[in-house]
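Next comes this protein.

***
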Amino acid sequence: MVSPELQDTAIGDHCARSGYRITNRMEGLDESGSRAKSRWWARLDEAVSLVEAGEVDVIVVWKFSRTARNRLKWAVALDRVEAAGGRLESATEQVDTTTSTGRFTRGMLAELNAFEAERIGEQWKEAHSRRLSMGLPSRGGDRFGYVRDGDRYTPDEVTGPVLAGMFAAYVDGVGFQSIARQVNAAGHRTLSGRPWSSERVADVLDSGFGAGQLVVGSRREASWVPGVHEPVVDARVWEAYREAREARRGAPGSSRPPLYPLSGLLRCGDCGAAMHATALGRWPGYGFICGRWAKTGEGRCVTVSRAKAERVVKEWLAVLAGQIESSAAREAVRAAAQVVAHTDATALRRQVTRLEARLAKLTVGWTEGLVPDQAYATTRDQLQGEQAALLARAREAESRSRSLDRPAAPMVTAILESWDTQEPAALRDLMSGVIARVVVHRPEDGPVSVSVEPLDGLEVQ
């Protein structure tokens, strides 16, 4: 409830009094510090990583409450900062953390903040449960297809039929992307005034609000209870939608290996969106299309054939191989990148080791009866989740280090020589060691052009 400008001013004044030079500013507007999966914690993790890398010495927040609303996240972040020789300070709570009294005070403030966050969360849960028991959505606000008058929702004469048509289209076999493009082409926008996307269409339909339902939970754990508002589609359509949704629900894209060597590397030069493989010609995967245009129908339809994109990339790799082989400086860049990757892997492994020690200490406390069963199970699962994420990052850095632990020229040559025989996933992984992205530009007139952007430190003439 305090404006970002006032918080920034307070932080700036604190840094000026302390003689600090501000090198980075990070904002988390409307981002909760209570939820473990909030984007706020990703920003804090980024700040802590800067301390561990030796780029900054101190993290200054407006209040400790911005970082201490989740006990486990707070403890892990604070441990990482102090283990790296850094400090975390509050601009409005003058606590000398160099003394035992100061650290005790900071700990008490953190516990009070966590207690307050939990108390507020419990009150919200009670309010949400009460609203659901009355047949009202747990959260207020407008709903697409409806006119709201306080807690009373009635179908809108214009958008209500549009919402009903979205349900009917999906039941008839139309995909979310096509529905989004049809709705956008008809001139309709989301409640925030933005174009419809496949994800937004799925969210609106999955909520079941248009079928007179109220969703409880999220994603695959969702369930529905009847609401008191009037539906725009009947129960038969809703059941048909749920059956079609379950039948067409496939494995997430991230679990499937890439089909083509450039999958995941191509970007639209017009809007920056990722480009997806599509059937532009006679065969599936013949080309790539701007993902934003494919989902919403908004912007420009930027496309490129696979043959052209791959030809440009192979020509670029051939030039790079020749330059690296003839330049000792390129090998210096490779060696430096390998050192950075090895350092990252080592630092991540240290963090994994620290978490293992914390898990061991937690287990000892539990076996001795000092830690309740529920607290032990919750904290153990959270620590193991943190450990698994760090371990995955460490393995990724180690893999990157190994790929750089050899001259770059032979690596690029290997890509070119195995292009027609290597698996697409393996080729893509190899190319990610030298290519940042491949950008497709579509001019107002003339042919589409493709440009390759190398990773930092590589320059191709």
